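Exercise 7. Given the encoded structure of a 182-residue chain, write a plausible sequence.
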């Protein structure tokens, strides 16, 4: 059954079809929430809230493509709102951090952790832009539509965020070199 057929059945009140929609989109919603919020428990709660909101808004969803757009938009906006309400400094245990490191792709887990931390240090809107660009592979026009911001603002966030992250990495490398040379 196609995504549009599942959507039509779910709009007609078929709970099994709605469950299929949730199962087919839960990874992307959870993944975006996790990368935005940096914590599994918050990402799980947010994913549940997004899907509960979806259930109430099913009649306004026009197609499978609109559904994917709507889910990204709601997840990103909810994450930004939650990050703005959160205290600026939050402590996490090293055990929790170790669970976020994935070596499935054979990459460097320390580098992945460092990059994840750099993204988490960005402002909530900039973080949303970076995540939608590099995790969801959206272009600036799609990101602008998703976040209800001008395309030039999206491009500015991308440019400044990448410059900030590059500078931070270079500063860290320089600091390490200085430590090892003394």
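Solution.
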């Amino acid at each position: 059954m196609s995504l549009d057929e599942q959507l039509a059945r779910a709009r007609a009140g078929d709970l099994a079809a709605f469950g299929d929609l949730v199962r087919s989109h839960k990874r992307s919603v959870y993944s975006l929430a996790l990368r935005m919020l940096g914590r599994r428990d918050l990402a799980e709660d947010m994913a549940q809230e997004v899907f509960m909101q979806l259930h109430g808004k099913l009649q306004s969803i026009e197609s499978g493509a609109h559904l994917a757009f709507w889910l990204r938009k709601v997840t990103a906006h909810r994450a930004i709102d939650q990050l703005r309400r959160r205290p600026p400094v939050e402590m996490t245990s090293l055990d929790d951090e170790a669970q976020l490191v994935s070596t499935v792709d054979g990459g460097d887990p320390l580098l992945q952790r460092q990059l994840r931390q750099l993204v988490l240090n960005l402002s909530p809107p900039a973080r949303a832009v970076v995540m939608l660009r590099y995790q969801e592979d959206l272009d600036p026009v799609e990101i602008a539509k998703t976040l209800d911001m001008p395309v030039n603002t999206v491009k500015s966030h991308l440019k400044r965020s990448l410059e900030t992250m590059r500078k931070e990495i270079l500063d860290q490398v320089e600091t390490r070199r200085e430590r090892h040379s003394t």
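Remark. The chain has a mean pLDDT of 86. Students should compare their own answers with the one above.
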